[in-house]
C-alpha cells in the first residue's frame, strides 16, 4: 500500500447560503463555513493526520478551508500548491443567479440537467459540464497529486463540489449515471488510501454527509 489522500469540499460559502450558482465567482466562507473548516481540522487532528503537502484551487473559499485545516492539524506553514485546475466547474451564464429563480425561468428539469448531468454544460460560452471539469481535474491529479501519494506521502486536497465529484467519479468507479446522484457535504474529509497501482485500498468519510447540496 502506498500513501493517503484526504479530499475536502470547502466549507459553506456566502453564495451557498444564498442559494446562488457560484462556479468561478469568488465569495468567501460564511461563519458556518468557517466552523465546518475548523471542524475538519479538528477531526483530522484527532486522527493524528499529518500532511506532506496540500493542494487547493485559486478560489478563496477553498484556500481558506485548506489553511484552516492545516492550522487545525498544527501545520500552518505546510507547502500548499494553488492551481485553477482544481477550481469549481464554471457555471457560465448561471453564475450569480438564484437556483430557484433559474428553475422558474428554465424549468426544474432543465436546471437539474445543468446541475447534475455528466456531459450537458450550463448556458454560456464558458459553461462547463462535469465532463469538462474532469478534463482539467483528471490530468492534474495524474501528474501532480497521484505521484506524491504513490511515493507514500499524505496529501490534502481542498477543492469544490464538482471538481471533487469528477475526481471521486474515477476513484470510486462511478458511471455517468451514478455520479449524477452523488453530493459531497461541505467541510467533510474523505480519506483515501491507495494501492501501489493507484486503485483505492480503503475509503473513510469523517463526518456527516447529510448537509450535502
UniProtKB/TrEMBL annotation:
<dbReference type="InterPro" id="IPR029033">
    <property type="entry name" value="His_PPase_superfam"/>
</dbReference>
<keyword id="KW-0413">Isomerase</keyword>
<feature type="binding site">
    <location>
        <position position="99"/>
    </location>
    <ligand>
        <name>substrate</name>
    </ligand>
</feature>
<dbReference type="Pfam" id="PF00300">
    <property type="entry name" value="His_Phos_1"/>
</dbReference>
<feature type="binding site">
    <location>
        <begin position="9"/>
        <end position="16"/>
    </location>
    <ligand>
        <name>substrate</name>
    </ligand>
</feature>
<feature type="active site" description="Proton donor/acceptor">
    <location>
        <position position="88"/>
    </location>
</feature>
<comment type="similarity">
    <text>Belongs to the phosphoglycerate mutase family. BPG-dependent PGAM subfamily.</text>
</comment>
<dbReference type="GO" id="GO:0006096">
    <property type="term" value="P:glycolytic process"/>
</dbReference>
<comment type="pathway">
    <text>Carbohydrate degradation; glycolysis; pyruvate from D-glyceraldehyde 3-phosphate: step 3/5.</text>
</comment>
<dbReference type="InterPro" id="IPR013078">
    <property type="entry name" value="His_Pase_superF_clade-1"/>
</dbReference>
<comment type="subunit">
    <text>Homodimer.</text>
</comment>
<keyword id="KW-0312">Gluconeogenesis</keyword>
<feature type="binding site">
    <location>
        <begin position="22"/>
        <end position="23"/>
    </location>
    <ligand>
        <name>substrate</name>
    </ligand>
</feature>
<dbReference type="InterPro" id="IPR005952">
    <property type="entry name" value="Phosphogly_mut1"/>
</dbReference>
<keyword id="KW-0324">Glycolysis</keyword>
<protein>
    <recommendedName>
        <fullName>2,3-bisphosphoglycerate-dependent phosphoglycerate mutase</fullName>
        <ecNumber>5.4.2.11</ecNumber>
    </recommendedName>
</protein>
<feature type="site" description="Transition state stabilizer">
    <location>
        <position position="160"/>
    </location>
</feature>
<dbReference type="GO" id="GO:0004619">
    <property type="term" value="F:phosphoglycerate mutase activity"/>
</dbReference>
<feature type="binding site">
    <location>
        <begin position="115"/>
        <end position="116"/>
    </location>
    <ligand>
        <name>substrate</name>
    </ligand>
</feature>
<feature type="binding site">
    <location>
        <begin position="161"/>
        <end position="162"/>
    </location>
    <ligand>
        <name>substrate</name>
    </ligand>
</feature>
<feature type="binding site">
    <location>
        <position position="61"/>
    </location>
    <ligand>
        <name>substrate</name>
    </ligand>
</feature>
<dbReference type="InterPro" id="IPR001345">
    <property type="entry name" value="PG/BPGM_mutase_AS"/>
</dbReference>
<dbReference type="GO" id="GO:0006094">
    <property type="term" value="P:gluconeogenesis"/>
</dbReference>
<feature type="active site" description="Tele-phosphohistidine intermediate">
    <location>
        <position position="10"/>
    </location>
</feature>
<comment type="function">
    <text>Catalyzes the interconversion of 2-phosphoglycerate and 3-phosphoglycerate.</text>
</comment>
<feature type="binding site">
    <location>
        <begin position="88"/>
        <end position="91"/>
    </location>
    <ligand>
        <name>substrate</name>
    </ligand>
</feature>
Amino acid at each position: 500500500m502506498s500513501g493517503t489522500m484526504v479530499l475536502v469540499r470547502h466549507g459553506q460559502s456566502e453564495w451557498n447560503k444564498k442559494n446562488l450558482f457560484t462556479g468561478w465567482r469568488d465569495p468567501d466562507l460564511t461563519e458556518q463555513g468557517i466552523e465546518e473548516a475548523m471542524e475538519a481540522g479538528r477531526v483530522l487532528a484527532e486522527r493524528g493526520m499529518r500532511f506532506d503537502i496540500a493542494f487547493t484551487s485559486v478560489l478563496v473559499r477553498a484556500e481558506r478551508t485548506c489553511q484552516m485545516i492545516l492550522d487545525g492539524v498544527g501545520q500552518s506553514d505546510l507547502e500548499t500548491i494553488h492551481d485553477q485546475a482544481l477550481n469549481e466547474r464554471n457555471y457560465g451564464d448561471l453564475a450569480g443567479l438564484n437556483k430557484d429563480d433559474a428553475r422558474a425561468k428554465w424549468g426544474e428539469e432543465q436546471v437539474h440537467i445543468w446541475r447534475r448531468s455528466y456531459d450537458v454544460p450550463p448556458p454560456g460560452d464558458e459553461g462547463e459540464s462535469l465532463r469538462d471539469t474532469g478534463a482539467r481535474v483528471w490530468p492534474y491529479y495524474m501528474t501532480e497529486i497521484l505521484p506524491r501519494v504513490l511515493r507514500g506521502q499524505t496529501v490534502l486536497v481542498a477543492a469544490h463540489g464538482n471538481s471533487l465529484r469528477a475526481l471521486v467519479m474515477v476513484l470510486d468507479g462511478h458511471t455517468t449515471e451514478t455520479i449524477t446522484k452523488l453530493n459531497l457535504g461541505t467541510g467533510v474529509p474523505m480519506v483515501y488510501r491507495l494501492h501501489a497501482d493507484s486503485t483505492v485500498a480503503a475509503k473513510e468519510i469523517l463526518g456527516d454527509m447529510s448537509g450535502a447540496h
